[in-house]
């Protein structure tokens, strides 16, 4: 009977620890999500930012050009 009570006590302790860690993890994820929810990463850059890419319009590239670009860069 005493070993059965020890098993029940250990099970309750593991359940409480698991539940506590789950709740802590959930609220941590919610905090991080709310922290970055208002972060506008697609705003215009400030200062002396430079444009580093030159995108081609769809009418300028042919199917062969896109295929060569795919083979060279693995796009």
Nutshell version of this structure?
With 75 residues, the chain is an all-alpha fold.
Main attributes?
single chain; 75 residues; mainly alpha; 2 helices; elongated; transmembrane; YqzK family protein
Layout: helices, strands, pairs:
Layout: H1 2-37, H2 63-73
Protein name: YqzK family protein
Keywords: Membrane, Transmembrane, Transmembrane helix
InterPro entries: DUF4227
Strand content of the residues, in percent?
Answer: under 5%
Structural class: mainly alpha
N- to C-terminal separation? Answer: 66 Å
Gyration radius over CA: 28 Å
Uncertain parts: none
Order of helices and strands: HH
The count of β-strands is: 0
Averaged pLDDT: 84
The biggest beta sheet reads: none
Multimerization state: single chain
Global outline: elongated
How many helices? 2
Query: Helical percent range?
Result: 55-70%
Structure description:
- The chain is mainly α and 75 residues long.
- It is built from two helices and no strands.
- The mean pLDDT is 84.
């Amino acid at each position: 009977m005493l070993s059965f009570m020890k098993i029940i006590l250990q099970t309750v302790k593991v359940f409480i620890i698991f539940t506590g860690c789950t709740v802590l993890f959930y609220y941590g994820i919610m905090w991080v999500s709310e922290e970055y929810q208002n972060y506008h990463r697609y705003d215009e850059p400030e200062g002396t930012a430079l444009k580093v890419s030159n995108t081609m319009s769809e009418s300028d590239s042919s199917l062969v050009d896109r295929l060569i670009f795919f083979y060279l860069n693995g796009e």
